[in-house]
Input
Amino acid sequence: MADNIVKLTIDGKEVAAPKGMNLVEAAKLAGVEVPHYCYHPKLTIAGNCRMCLVDAGMPKLGPDKKPEMGPDGNPVIMFPPKLSIGCNTTVAEGMVVHTRSEKVHKAREGVMEFLLINHPLDCPICDQAGECRLQEFSVDYGKGESRFIEEKVHKPKKSAIGEKITLDDERCILCSRCIRFMKEVAGQDCLGFVNRGSYSTLTCYPGQEPKTNYDLNIVDICPVGALTSNDFRFKQRVWFLKETKSVCPNCSMGCNTVLWSREGVVHRQTPRDNEAVNSCWMCDYGRLNFKFINDPARITAPSVKSAVMGERFNLTWVEATRQVAGKLKAAKNVAGIATGKATTEELFLFHKLLKQVLGAELLDIVPHTGEADGKLLQADRNPNTAGAKLTGCATGDLPKILEGIKAGSIKTLVVFGEDVVEEELLKKLELLVVIATLPGKATEHAHYILPGATFAEKRGTFINGKNRIQRLNAAITSPGIARPEWQTFAALLNELKADGSYLAIEDVFADMARTFPSLAGLNLSKIGDLGVELKIEAAPAAAAPATSEVAKV
Amino acid sequence: MTVPVELERHIDEIITHYPTKRAPVLWLCHLIQDHFGFLGQEQVEWIAAKLSLQPINVWEVVTFYPMFTQKLRGKFHIKVCRTLSCQLAGSQKLLDRLKDLGVDFTVDTVECLASCGTAPAMMINDEHYDSMTPERLDQIIADIKRTGTLAKEPVSKPLPAHPLEKRILLANITKPGYTGSLADYEKEGGYQALAKALTMKPEEIVNEVKNSEIRGRGGAGFPCGLKWSFLAKNTGKPTYLVCNADESEPGTFKDRQLINYDPHQLIEGILISCYATGAKAAYIYIRGEMPHGAKVLINAIEEARAKGYRNADIYVHRGAGAYICGEETGLIESLEGKRAYPRIKPPFPAVVGLFGCPTVVNNVETLSNVPHIIKNGAAWFKAMGVAGSTGTRLVCVSGPVKRPGYYEFEMGKLTMKQLIEDVCGGVEGGKKIKGVIPGGSSMPVLPADKLDVPLDFESLRKAGTMAGSGGIVVLTEDVNIVDATLNVSQFYAHESCGQCTPCREGTLWMEKMLHRIKEGHGRPEDVDLLYEVADNIDGKTICPLGEAAAWPVKAFLKNYRSEFEAACKNGGKNGH
Amino acid sequence: MQVQRPKLTFLERTYIPQILKGMWLTIKHVPQKKFTRQYPEEKPVLFGDYRGAPTLVKDPENRVKCVSCQLCEFVCPPKAIRITPGFRAEGAPDENVEKEPQEFEIDMLRCIYCGFCEEVCPEEAIYLQRDFAIAGYSRDELKFKKQKLLELGGVRPDSIWKWKYKGAPPPGTPIGPVRDGKGAPVAEA
Output
């Protein structure tokens, strides 16, 4: 047996757990859930909610310091008179833990009742309803009716904790997770309890509200509805929302996320656990930047600009593909501008279309940068710069393209996913094909507009700044007849008789896996929910702008 | 707001007493509040800036400790003790007189002022008043109104010894003319034990204390020598010694005497203990309601330092009205300048304590015993008392007995009955005893038929209760048990720090329920519900305050169930 | 599977006996007592637990009871209910309720009058009234909006005062019968 592994018994099941692990985590190994509120694996241990009480006993040691054996041949186990809290009790060799005994159950029922006596019956108006730990555990440990007939303690309701969060102190169970998160992870010691005993109240000092880029994580970790997000406030009940595993498209960190949607509308984005990327947090910038998905201005159908009147006419996809393919085939001096926000598959097909089929010389993506915050948010705000590099779309030739248009050496431009360049340049072009989701300057001047899909509407992959390939899933369908761009590129390739083999996204990925050695042997299923780290020789990470250390979160 | 130069200099000096920037928060709050009268937003921000903290850190502290106020109080802040012994002695009568006094006065009730033997007690600003009567109160208020100032209240005289007592710790103060000064203490052989100790090896002292088998006098009764030997060694961190002088268990008023009358005995004990444990600094955490004691200690420490007794630095740290600071990890948190939230164990303070360093926390009485053990040897000490409970013990008797007060006895040599009947002269007016709380209000009550129990740790444990802090409260037949339980529950609901769910919610629930029962709105099912609520708190919390709140309620319910049932049946009237 | 046609006799193949039999059945009823109800002049008798159109009710203080918890929307088997949650007006006397429906729509063409919505409602804000004659000229007209639902529901003088008294109604609160949208108490059949 390895030195750092101990064996213990939890509810009759033998478990091997690493030394130093607490009983809440060890119980998970045994498939047992220990209910808890204040404990959070990424924060210091407070031990105040008392919900994770378990009965943990140790073998009785004889005078020779060896476990004493009972008449049944098993070690005699000594249980302390008091129950222990699972979160602050570490595993030990020979330990025996009961998590479902009558004593434990009764203790938890008691704690549950105490938590509920001063808790308001706000469930009908509380955004947490449906994902509230208090609701969940009262199913297991609640009495179903209240024995508390006294007046409840009243505290402030609906108070602002910064601009992003609303606090309801009556709902707060004082677990102190948010206080610990702000202090330990977000790095702003601004929340605290005031008053004492049952009157203790969570608050922030006036004028010192949370203002980090990570504040909204406290809404996620709040086990009850005390902290709610203003952005999601009263939008939808969570039980209507469909959860789709996705990846945040706002920087090269690629935080794993869940998109919560109902009937084609994404209502919120929350972080998803991934130890290799974002632990269980995400930044507010990324979290809130998803409103473009359901922008009413979204482009819903392909269109062509009439050469005579300058009017736009909508086209069917068949017609649009035929016309665009025809025009592109006839065009000379083609260049392409792609986006680092596109999936690797799309960039791969775009590269193939422009370079191999249309013979474009220049092709690049538009860099987007910002300030890195030393935690999760990276300076490179393109989620897929590494993918663009891998597929050959990121070349650094963007200035040359602009010069070429100015000089007249580039007459045809295909813009994919970006809104670029000065109108002067756009006017010079003989053929401008724009693949976009939202209207902008480029679409205004485009001869052809082909509607695209946002990250929430398609499948595909992003490669983050640390060369981890991660998978997107489609949460909703695109508005109108807009469709994922890879389908558009595949249709154009087919129309141009270049390649007709891409019927599904899997086919595109399979072709990529054949083309790039670093993807060899991979497919979308193998990438899984948590992604796979790639071995890319000329590591783009080195070239990527200022990738900062991931905070130890 | 401007802080006077003088005050800021004092503050700067206080800051040097602590290794962390946060620890002086309580001291600063006291000093700033004394000057400005309250701690508003400006004051909080000034303190935060002074200590380079976030304002929330200071605000959390200000709102936790009842002695701090965010609103300006009247010039004269009257604090009347409302806890059990004072209530039995008629503190309500005092409160009834304190109405419509005008803007210069603010009247509050406070939890136990540790003056139960001379109940009812009260304070006006920093002055402490014993054995109050409504007439005397009227006189004091009239004097204040006439003169516009507060006259100094002399500290009451020490009580003479009873023939059945064996005074060791109280020996000096019984002597006529003893003032507690360094000169007086040295005259009685003071600091000889320290001199002897400094010639011994620290391990020898630890062994001597271990062999004396002295058990902690604070309440839990943990063997002191064993506690010292648990201290983590060779950690590369300093070791701290903390003297727990946060005496606030209702019914207990022994440490107050040891500090007020004989501070050098304690200081010598601390210096010896520091030498034995390797501590270079010691803090005396004295409760905020004892400003006189704090002054006495600061003077005595100065005297001792000047005289060269300085093998460790001793600092006085004032609390601010939180019972929970009597719990050792709550005390440590409070010393670090935080809300006194007891810590989860492990780690124990002996490993990770004050400022993250190995720390030993001992009660005043325990440390006061140390010089005597060193001077006379462990064998001498062990010869007193009985097995498992060695030495003498200070007990504090309050309630309607003829001679309430503090007494020192060899442990186990006297029964509860003897103490009440012989030493205290029996109950006033010849009333029958209904029960006795043997060790501060958190200990289960001893019913009248069990009073033959000897006063030592083991015997009391066998009788189903505990020796606790030595605060004995006698309850007579005319005491309404529902009222008494409510009084005790109110104390714990007020003092619950609010950290753990069961204690935070349960204590207030019990208080509200008992209040309702007292008001005559009890339902028959409330008796069992009350017991179950208490049982749900018991043993489920981080610190022993959960038990402290649950045990008395459970014991009262067990022993006097019929009274509760009657209260729940016939509209709260107890049939007397 | 092959189904065998029954073999008909000659008489049966003429269909005459069948026609006569049918005519006899009809004619038999001519002298008997009529049991056809002359609707709409003559209204049917509704029983106590009759379930008619679902409506939104207001509390005795004329406040909208619905807080848009969307449980009815969730439980509705034919998915006839659609709620757009919203905020209660800032500064309103009942601001503490925080939430109310911005829009509340019941598609009466979908509604199956099962009463689940009434049963699930934690605020007792939705009640099935006794109206059964729901007609309109278009599908859209039969999508009842919040305004119409509240008009149909009217004020319900009941004991639920959750948002004002946190539990018990003030002493002496009349607890009256269910009222329909027109304000007249509905007689129990």
Remarks:
- Confidence is low (pLDDT under 50) at residues 572-576 of chain B.
